[in-house]
Amino acid sequence: MTVVRISASGESVVQIKNDLNLLQPIFDALIHDSYDAGDSDITPSVWIDSPRIAQLTKMHQDEIEETISDRVFSLLGTAVHVMLERAAGEGVITEERVFYDHPSGLRMSGAIDLQIEDENDQ
Fold first, then answer.
1. pTM for this predicted structure
2. Residue 3 above 70 pLDDT?
3. Residue 99's pLDDT is what?
4. Residue 46: its H or E element
5. DSSP code string of 53-102
6. Are 10 and 36 in contact (CB under 8 A)?
7. Which residues of 18-57 are buried (b: 16+ CB within 10 A; e: fewer)?
8. Beta-carbon neighbour count of residue 115 at 10 Å?
């Protein structure tokens, strides 16, 4: 079984194959991707990637196929991230997305996972 997933921006389409023959609810949970880069053209994840990989991905994005087995650890990472974010408590800021508009017209953004507020800095 193959399913089509459309990114939050609605631009990229990825084919995901259920190579583990998972039950549909589990498969659906694994293909869900809540990542949102906001209104930006580029993010740190793309900045640190190889330029060749970025260009090939852009050129062939409709040909790329993932298997669901590739997404299991991604889901575990997301779950741990959410748990840590919920346990952050007072005096911290979690998941703040910041933007920078470059003079070239490129809009960059990145999410800061955790910031500890300085109680002495008002």
1. 0.63
2. no
3. 94
4. helix 44-47
5. HHHHHHHHTTT-EEEGGGGHHHHHHHHHHHHHHHT--TTEEEEEEEEEE-
6. no
7. beeebeeeebeebbebeeebeebebbeeeeeeeeeeeeee
8. 13
